[in-house]
């Protein structure tokens, strides 16, 4: 007995073959990105988030600020601080004030890390002052002033992710300021001793 076959047109077979052999990674998804993030595959997760953002742009949809936030978080974890700055900055125009505050906080962390990597004390001081500036934006937003209050440098500390107290954030800012003052003092002493 001969097996039965169906005579499908070649075009139908080609389409079916394309679906069978199409790699699963061709379609980006937040779940795929999160899975990569949780596995410590930060570069892969960043690629997935950026694919999602590119797909939104191609579909002429507004970019989802949550995707930018997540992309910034994985870029930070991958020590891609330039990418983290770009993505967190894209979140600052989001209508969600809490998301903005988290982005400002993470921008502060990025600038702090950039300061740690600085090759000169001037760059270190510049980065850490910018970190303080970003943390102050968090304080202004958490105070309830909305986006315009982010420029209020006299804002009182609040919290981050409901896990940090206002005292913690204020202490963090004070510690960075003290570190900058100590470094400036040390540089002044060293520079003064080298002039003689």
Question: What is the element layout, followed by pairings?
Answer:
Layout lengths: L9 H12 L8 H9 L3 H17 L6 H13 L3 H11 L5 H21 L3 H25 L20 H30 L1
Quick summary:
The protein is an all-alpha fold.
How would you characterize this protein structure?
This protein is mostly helical and 196 residues long. It has eight helices and no strands. The radius of gyration is 24 Å and the shape is globular.
**Cα end-to-end separation:** 104 Å
Strand-and-helix sequence, N→C? Answer: HHHHHHHH
Overall geometry: globular
Largest beta-sheet details = none
Q: Specify the structural class.
A: mainly alpha
Average pLDDT metric: 76
The total count of strands amounts to: 0
Estimate percent helicity: over 70%
* Count of DSSP H/I helices: 8
Q: Beta fraction of the residues?
A: under 5%
Q: What's the gyration radius in Å?
A: 24 Å
Low-confidence stretches: 12-26, 147-163, 190-196
Summary tags:
196 residues, mainly alpha, 8 helices
